[in-house]
Design goal:
single chain, 3 helices, 117 residues, alpha/beta, 26% strand
């Protein structure tokens, strides 16, 4: 499992990546206190054999950027959806992408699927 960083929608974004395959699975954590990619998905990533599996730290969580109120980032659902869509494009996930989300991550996965079917 590799720990990596990229820029998505203007924010430094941390993610974990494991495996290789023709399809990419993107795992999105929930929004509880202390939630992040490692805590929610580190035991799942190695089990997704045959896929490129990626678990992202959403803005404000884990090792990703934590924009303050002076930055204009408001932590809205639309902003989370746009960030995840930009992240998927940035990592070159291709199509189709399988999105798996827990709690807040599930809503964000649905938002991306709705905006970018």
């Amino acid at each position: 499992m590799e720990s990596k960083f990229t820029e998505a929608a203007g924010l430094v974004t941390h993610y974990l990546e494991h495996g290789r395959g023709d399809a990419t699975i993107v795992l999105v954590h929930g929004g509880g206190a202390g939630a992040d990619a490692r805590g929610n998905w580190q035991t799942v990533l190695p089990r997704l054999e045959g896929y490129r599996a990626v678990a992202v730290d959403m803005p404000g969580f884990g090792e990703s950027a934590k924009p303050g109120p002076d930055t204009g980032y408001g932590y809205t659902q639309d902003e989370r959806d746009d960030h995840l869509a930009a992240f998927i494009e940035r990592i070159g996930a291709g199509r189709p992408v399988v999105l798996v989300g827990n709690s807040m991550g599930g809503l964000t996965a649905l938002g991306v699927a709705r905006k970018r079917p």
